[in-house]
Write a structure and sequence with these properties.
single chain, about 150 residues, alpha+beta, OB fold (Dihydrolipoamide Acetyltransferase, E2P), 2 domains, 5-stranded mixed β-barrel, rod-shaped
Length: about 150
């Protein structure tokens, strides 16, 4: 079962704020990481910044936990981890938070072109327009002066 949105652009998806609820299944003190088991059996890895947060997690081991943090995605669009910023009891939380958060692609703003440039055709579209207001006679006189 695919539990992530496939990223077809090859660009890394931007991290985003998420809320995820699951049972705290594992805490690893040495790497300050944890593992949540979601209702559908999916495992979500997470990380905390401080040792104090690791100690705070201990009270939720084997219980439902709501993790507040930033989801980090790989190029494939798959969730790599959640960088946790806070925790709460997961009891009574909406089932909406019991799913793997999907990534969102940030698309660049479209490039806008001037309508006049799109309407030009021929040589003027490639080189631009003639800069002067000279007549044909003035132009021929200038060419004659250049040739000597």
């Amino acid at each position: 079962m695919r539990n992530y949105r496939q990223n077809t652009t090859g660009r890394t998806l931007q991290p985003r704020q998420v809320r995820v609820t699951g049972v705290l299944d594992m805490i690893r003190h040495s790497s300050r990481s944890f593992l949540l088991k979601l209702e559908d059996g999916t495992e979500v890895r997470g990380a905390v910044k401080t040792r104090e947060q690791v100690e705070e997690l201990k009270q939720f081991l084997g219980k439902k936990l709501l993790v507040l943090g930033r989801a980090v995605y790989g190029v494939s669009g798959k969730l790599l981890r959640i960088d946790a910023e806070g925790f709460e009891s997961g009891e009574g939380q909406p089932r909406l938070f019991a799913k793997v958060p999907t990534g969102r692609e940030v698309r660049p703003a479209p490039v806008r072109t001037k309508r006049a440039l799109l309407q030009q055709q021929g040589v003027s579209a490639f080189f631009g327009t003639w800069p002067g207001e000279e007549t044909d006679e003035d132009f021929e006189r200038m060419l004659a002066e250049l040739r000597g």
